[in-house]
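Protocol step 4 of 6: structure prediction from sequence.
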Amino acid sequence: MDGALIGSAALLGLAGAPHCTAMCGAPCAAAIGRSGGATPTLAFHLARVASYAVAGAVVATAVGALATMAQWSPALRPLWTVVHVLVLSLGLWLLWTGRQPGWMAALGRPPEPAVAGDGWRPMRAPARAALAGALWVGWPCGLLQGALLVASMTGGAASGAAAMAAFAVASSPGLLLAPWAWRKMSRFGDAAARERWAIRAAGAML
């Protein structure tokens, strides 16, 4: 039974890869950075798989608590609505302006050199990418929620973690394709104009 559910989660991720490209392509490209280096990319995806696996383990062992959690759903619904409104606002911003907000653009910007004697050291690109990947499980995505539901039906923490890890790995091509396509498009013609249209397309799909 668990094997079938793990396989179902993997197929769900594979079928949803185009959805991942559309919904998460722009923020994923920003989190990894414009250079799209192998180290930030690997850090992002390993952290994403790990966080999804942890979430799968949690939901697989917490099914008994769902009835109690359901009592809180009316109170949480406004918060969930606000999150969706923020995501919609982000999509409209990208579509209208053709540029990323400052905070999103800063995710992919290389850190400035540290000043001698300054105790603060900016978080480097791989660490930023890993942090973004670890937090990706909180993205308000119906496909992700469906995978978590599949994981919750497994028999234990290990199976739930395996189901979500399979989903994360199978859906990764969608998140690998978007930054790669972004960099390829910027090499031809007017890079700034192409980038604006790519951002607008991402906003429309979001």
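Step 5 (inspection) to follow. The CA atoms of residues 90 and 203 lie 7 Å apart.
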